[in-house]
Amino acid sequence: MPVSPETQKTIALVVRHNTVGIEEPVRGIIAFLQVAGYRVVFESETAAHLNMPDIGAMSASEIGEVAEAAIVMGGDGTMLGIARKLAPYALPLIGINQGRLGFMTDIPIERTLPVLAEILAGKSDSEKRTLLEGRVLREGVEIASGLAVNDVVVARGAGAGMAELKVTVDGHFMYNQRSDGLIISTPTGSTAYALSAGGPLLHPSLGGVVLVPIAPHALSNRPIVLPDSCNIVVEVVSGRDVSVNFDMQTFASLAHGDQIVISRSPHHITFLHPEGWSYYDTLREKLHWNEYPSGEGKLR
Questions:
Q1: Which CATH number fits domain 10-122: 3.40.50.10330, 3.30.2140.20, 3.90.1010.10, 3.40.50.620?
Q2: Annotated catalytic, 54?
Q3: pLDDT the model gives residue 233
């Protein structure tokens, strides 16, 4: 019996812009989903960059209201952008890697169709990730806000000297820090900028937030992991061209005395992975933990 438009399930496609040769695999996924009985729509920015007028387009909010899932073809940056928009809708996300690293877009492009078939048949591992939300206050008035899947970063300008930041946690003074900036990261973001600045890896299931100073003036100023129930306030004491960004995608310029109030978001994102997926497999593959210098470090 054919599926009626009223009962047909919708799956959204989000594709990284300006990816050479992407049209053929996109067409293949669309055909596969349509044969399986799904209605396929593009996220509106994807539709604007792909010349496929036969496929409908929806805004992120419309997708969140009607879709069963969103398939994201790109790198982690593509996933970050759409995940923040869809977070209020708890829509499952399936990541197909068209980027370089692919911590969140973990399905290899060559395995797309068989893995999609398994996931749509219910053979998948579901994983929830927390987000941070931040509000920028100037004299008590909110002037900007944002969500972060990876991190909230307060940093000085490229040509400026060190910034001084006052950090308070749950109303308790932590420190005044002189540095190039401060990274406030989720467990998801602990494998991103926070890791390159010397922060620890946090398993995604941990309820933690990591604070990582960027090139601190005092070498004793080390990263710290806090409960994600904390309310963190970062105040700009001094420094030129200081700004705050959320996942490097939303920016706000800061003035002395501005406060960034950061807490765990009530929303979360859900990734659907191939059945048997392992976070540790991902770490070995992406961070090359299984590699040794030639002839060294192997058990004999």
A1: 3.40.50.10330
A2: no
A3: 98
